[in-house]
Amino acid sequence: MGDVVKVHIQVQSKAASGEVKKLSYQARGPFQVIKCLDHNSYEVQRYNEPESATRKYKGTELYLLPPIIYPHEPLDLMDERYLNYAHAPIVSPLMKPLRIELYEDSHLIAGGVTVKDDKVDQPISTLDAAAFEDHVIPIMPSAEELFVESGTLFAPPEIVEHIDTLNVTHDSIQASRDKLFFIRYTPAGTMRPRWFLVQVDIESTVEINPEFLQNGRYFCAFLAKHPNDARKSDEFGRWWPDWYRYKTTKTTNEIVYGDRILFRPSVIPDSTKFIQWATDIQLIGDTHIVLQGPFNFEALSESNRTLQKVQEDKWHHLATTCLDSGIVPPTLGAFSSLKPGTERSQNTRKRKLSYKN
């Protein structure tokens, strides 16, 4: 009872590919034994899913999984810094492919009891023994200390001040219809700052941070390009709210983001199943966050028939600001992966007409 197992089942025989039912097996799982039946049979259920359907297998079809799997504990080294340069590490990497939650004290043992056999879990060499010891993470020297050690002059990078020219105030945010901002932001777990398009949520700001008029922090929701516009440059894309399916880990109660789900800007989905990427941001009082704003979406006109689109001049201003600040700029015009299709579409139409004739 409580053992975590995998199941080896026979596959269907296929004469075309030469697969024999008695010799071909497929592993499924992981499952957890919930009942011991007669005649060496067991009733199992999906691991960590008490509401899933129960299944019955013979004992000869069940195989124990390793009693313990140690999670990866990243060290503050150069290779880890490179990997986390633009993408945050996954909270529970085995959750999606194997439905296993591994984080800190979560192991494949009923009740979360850690089992270690001193007779079996022995390192092969002295190098392995040293690897199992506690690692001392060295303190990385700052750039100024490295310059002093080498005897050269330290010149800090020039940071462009944007807030003085933008003149962002509480009144300007309130007066804006859509309350959009281009900001410089470094996502949690990453190291490289990037530009993002966010929208201020006044109602959530008042609820979460009642002192926003004093500290200048506003609750902002991140906007992402519509998947159908992924091949278009940023200036021609539609920017919708960034909603995801989510779960929380049982041990640390951290949020694990799932697939992105599209909801229209006017729709607010079920908060128990979907979460929007949003956080509070220092829009007033910090000279290095706001790149541009507040501004509105481009209004509908004879030249624009698309909602949730940002004006072209805003993108060109953002590109210039990003280059001055050392941030990867947005894709504009010639950087679009879409190729001109006018000539191709005309040729296709001619071929279709010739077929009909």
Give the CA-based shape: extended
Cα Rg: 28 Å
Classify the beta-strand content into a percent band: 15-25%
Structure summary, number of beta strands = 14
Secondary-structure element series:
EEEEEHHHHHHEEHHEEEEEEEHH
Structural class: alpha+beta
- Estimated helix fraction: 10-25%
User: How does the major sheet shape up?
Assistant: 6 strands, antiparallel
Low-confidence spans = 103-115, 159-165, 335-346, 348-357
- The overall average pLDDT, rounded, is 77
Number of helical segments? 10
Note the main attributes of this structure:
single chain, 357 residues, alpha+beta, SH3 type barrels, 6-stranded antiparallel beta sheet, 5-stranded antiparallel beta sheet, 24% strand, extended, disordered C terminus
Molecular structure report:
With 357 residues, the protein is α+β, with helices and mostly antiparallel strands. Among the domains are: 4-11 and 24-64, SH3 type barrels, CATH 2.30.30; 163-242 and 277-335, no CATH class. Helix content is 21%, strand content 24%. It has helices at residues 78-83, 95-98, 126-132, 143-150, 163-166, 170-175, 202-208, 212-215, 312-325, 342-356; strands at 4-10, 25-36, 41-46, 54-58, 62-64, 180-185, 194-200, 217-225, 239-241, 243-248, 255-261, 274-276, 278-282, 290-295. Strands 6, 7, 8, 9, 13 and 14 form a six-stranded antiparallel sheet that branches. Strands 4-3-2-1-5 form a five-stranded antiparallel sheet, with no helix packed on it. Strands 11-10-12 form a three-stranded antiparallel sheet, with no helix packed on it. A hairpin with an 8-residue loop joins strand 6 and strand 7. The protein starts with a strand and ends with a helix. Residues 103-115, 159-165, 335-346 and 348-357 have low confidence and may be disordered.
